[in-house]
Design goal:
Elements (H helix, E strand, L loop, with lengths): L7 H10 L8 H22 L3 H8 L14 E2 L3 H6 L1 E2 L4 E12 L10 E10 L4 H13 L6 E5 L9 H30 L14 H9 L1 H9 L10 H21 L7 H10 L4 H4 L3 H24 L6 H24 L11 H12 L3 H5 L17 H22 L1 H26 L4 H9 L1 H6 L9 H7 L5 H20 L8 H20 L2 H6 L5 H27 L4 H7 L4 H5 L2 H17 L9 H37 L31 H4 L20
Parallel strand pairs: 1-4
Antiparallel strand pairs: 2-3, 3-4, 3-5
């Protein structure tokens, strides 16, 4: 690519020679003279060993080794460039990225060999001037053409998105501070503070103060105590599944952000132990199973208690009001204030991505159909799960009413829906030749295949999208949710009690473990060599892998609930999972923002290795849960408590039954006792409200 890199003296001479051009472009002429004068001054000062000028050229990237491993992104030293200042002139450094070379080389078909080289110029030089200078400069060094030049500048405009984000944050902070002071006052000086917070007869102001109080909410979020009659194993399952999602996305980003991307791609494809990352998509199916199970179990419990009455509009409205605020807040912050949270050579582009991706289609996310519209969902695209979960929740009253009226016809409807979804997946997989997701990831990590057809997999119309997308569309995903609903009805019917002989328990655990491991690792031979499955094998996989995984998860839940979980139940019951599980909803929404932030603020590309990757992964998990605690404390729990208070007048009848808090999806087997520990009761933070037991959040989160 570069036959040689010049010595410092030759470098300055070639750069000075590049300024001797007859510029005819009217737009370029505007700043060419000032750019040429400043750069000439910097070159002369560098020849005279003036520190700022030497620093400016020292910050340029130089060609490095490891090109065959994908090291073609040479960023130079961004901060050294910006620190290069001559205040007397004045001349300041401006970092620019130049891309040169070819899109591919013949000996590795499709392998990208366009190198990016970080450069440093005076701020008086426009992007067009830099491109003109570098085109001449590189022509003297190599036959590879200059492809593009970018001099990114962070948008410092404090516009309407930034103002709105700041106002929302300040309002909730102010409410939280005032409420905290009031809550502490009532706790210490008023006897009413000792009353059960769930009683709607309690004065409204203390209840509102407790909703927004940082102290009360912080204690409740971080509490490891659990209410009687709940299913603690769900805490462990939610936390493990959420961290699995984070791991999947960290490993997915690595090959595109490393200076040895070829080795990273080969290792991820070729190491069997990493199949849990490559094939980590099944963690979302775990969420769907838990969600369907909770809706059915708690729904049937409520339907029987109130003789089949269900206020469906309230049922929907509560769900929307309790899910959406934290989701909208994270989108709002990412589109505005997020850009002030970092700096670096890639930061202007990285921070602008969220605004560019969401400014047209944010409303589709907040109306929960981003899995269906737009054609290519860019705005928080990983939140397609939330859209599916909301759509399934909207359909759930149909199944609940039929199950309440007739167990037989209810199960006929559930089975029909499950089989219809499975059949739809099979037909779409067959006619569209859809490959398993792990195989698609492997093909993308195979650089030769990926760059030989860079537009592969991008639909060009909605009919094509709906006929080929078996990953995000609800008609292909609902089968797992309905299996969860059947499991929830089973638990309701048997009142969480079931007797099984030891042989059945042994074979149940053995079978579920073996089948689950098979699902995760079975595709390794195809992933290793990046070879698509035959159409018959792809259809079998697309048809049965998710439903069978759902059955494995159902066994784990049922066995643990009914007392046959053994060490698995003991681990999933671990009390440390309780506070973390209350943060998983926010963590799911935030985690890719954190990943994008981490890689966006890096001055240099990441060097892939197992050790580096694991340190990055655990760091991302830690920062994600810290940020989740902030959003949960500031937005999620206050809004949830407020919604419960607002809808308390719509409750079917007053009861002391405890309800689960947001992100703390827990099943209540029986009404909690009236005088249960008041601190524990504040974990739910409000009154019963019609159909509150079905949980405010996406059930798995």
């Amino acid at each position: 690519m570069l036959s040689r890199w010049p010595t410092s003296r030759m470098f300055l001479a070639l750069l000075l020679e590049s300024l001797n051009q007859n510029v005819t472009d009217p737009q370029l002429q505007r700043d060419w003279q000032s750019c040429s004068d400043d750069l000439t001054r910097v070159i002369e000062d560098a020849q005279n060993q003036k520190s700022y000028a030497v620093q400016m050229f020292d910050s340029w990237a130089k060609p490095e080794g490891g090109i065959m491993e994908g090291n073609v992104g040479w960023r130079g030293h961004y901060y050294e460039c910006l620190d290069a200042k001559n205040k007397t002139t004045p001349i300041y450094g401006r970092w620019c990225m130049s891309t040169m070379g070819y899109t591919s080389l013949p000996y590795v078909y499709g392998y990208p060999m366009a190198a990016t080289i970080g450069t440093c110029f005076p701020t008086s030089c426009s992007e067009k001037s830099v491109e003109t200078i570098l085109r001449s400069f590189y022509a003297n060094l190599t036959n590879s053409p200059l492809l593009s030049v970018s001099c990114p500048v962070l948008d410092q405009t404090f516009g309407h998105m930034e103002i709105l984000g700041m106002l929302v944050t300040l309002i909730f902070l102010l409410l939280g501070l005032v409420a905290t002071v009031a809550d502490l006052y009532w706790q210490h000086y008023k006897t009413t503070a000792q009353e059960d917070v769930l009683k709607p007869t309690r004065p409204i102001l203390p209840r509102l103060a407790e909703c927004f109080s940082f102290v009360s909410n912080g204690k409740n979020i971080l509490s490891t105590r659990r209410l009687p009659g709940m299913i603690p194993v769900l805490d462990g399952m939610r936390v493990i599944s959420t961290t699995w999602v984070i791991m999947f996305h960290v490993f997915f980003v690595l090959p595109y952000a490393s200076d040895n991307s070829v080795r990273a791609a080969k290792n991820i494809r070729g190491d069997a132990s990493l199949m849990a990352m490559v094939n980590g998509i099944f963690c979302v199916d775990t969420f769907f199973v838990i969600g369907g199970m909770l809706v059915a179990y708690l729904g049937m419990k409520r339907m029987h208690k109130y003789k089949g009455r269900l206020n469906v509009p309230i049922y929907y409205l509560q769900r929307y009001l309790r899910l959406t605020p934290v989701y909208a807040y994270v989108i709002l912050i990412s589109m505005g204030l997020y850009k002030y949270l970092g700096d670096g050579p890639e930061w202007p582009t990285s921070s602008d991505d969220f605004y560019d991706q969401c400014h047209d289609d944010w409303w589709a996310n907040l109306l929960y159909f981003s899995n269906l519209y737009p054609l290519v969902p860019d705005c928080f695209q990983w939140c397609w799960y939330l859209a599916n979960d909301m759509q399934f929740y909207l359909l759930s009253p149909i199944f609940l009413f039929v199950l309440y009226k007739s167990k037989l016809w209810g199960h006929v409807l559930l089975v029909a829906g499950t089989l219809g979804s499975i059949l739809t997946s099979a037909l779409l997989t067959y006619f569209a030749a859809v490959q398993p997701d792990a195989v698609v990831i492997s093909l993308n990590l195979n650089l030769a295949r990926r760059f030989s057809n860079p537009n592969a997999g991008i639909p060009d119309s909605f009919p094509v999208k709906y006929q080929t997308d078996t990953y995000r569309t609800p008609w292909c995903r609902i089968s797992v949710y309905l299996i969860g609903m059947m499991a929830g009805y089973f638990l309701f019917e048997h009142k969480m009690r079931l007797k099984m002989n030891k042989m059945l328990v042994f074979f149940g655990w053995l079978t579920s473990a073996a089948v689950a491991c098979t699902i995760v690792y079975a595709l390794y031979p195809s992933v290793q060599v990046s070879e698509p499955l035959t159409i018959e094998a792809a259809v079998m996989w697309g048809t049965f892998s998710r439903p069978v995984w759902a059955l494995c998860i159902v066994w784990v839940i049922v066995a643990c609930v009914t007392g046959y979980g053994g060490p698995v139940k003991a681990f999933l019951d671990w009390s440390a999972f309780a506070p973390l599980s209350r943060l998983t909803y926010s963590a799911y929404i935030i985690h890719l923002v954190v990943i994008s932030w981490y890689f966006g603020v890096q001055e240099q590309l990441f060097h892939y290795s197992y050790i580096n990757t694991m340190f990055i992964y655990f760091g991302v998990v830690f920062v994600t849960f810290v940020c989740s605690f902030y959003t949960t404390l500031l937005i999620e729990w206050p809004i949830t408590g407020l919604v419960k208070i607002l809808f308390s007048a719509n409750q079917v009848s007053k009861t002391e039954e405890e309800t689960a808090p947001p992100n703390d999806v827990e099943i209540t087997i029986q009404n909690n006792q009236k005088n249960n520990d008041s601190k524990l009761k504040t974990i739910s933070g409000s009154t019963n409200d019609g159909f509150d037991d079905t949980e405010s959040q996406s059930a798995a989160l």
